[in-house]
Amino acid sequence: MLTENQDWLRKISQREFATLGINVVAYVKPVQGDKFSIYAADGSNLGSSSSKDSAVQAICLSDLIPVSVH
Fold this sequence. Notes:
This protein has 70 residues and is of the alpha+beta class. The protein has helices at 14-18, 52-61, and strands at 25-30, 36-40, 45-49, 65-66. A four-stranded mixed β-sheet has the order 3-2-1-4, covered by helices on one side.
């Protein structure tokens, strides 16, 4: 259940919802072989790396928060 302070979430458009976190969080996803891709909250590809650790480090160096996506 949303609190009064979170009620604004019920009133935002689908487009606004899709952009939540876009400039705040990023996630890493394994791709072909030993490569890892870095994605923004909206799913756009931000880059790639040869290891998960270096991908997470790149996210942090970009002032984004790495998140786990299941």
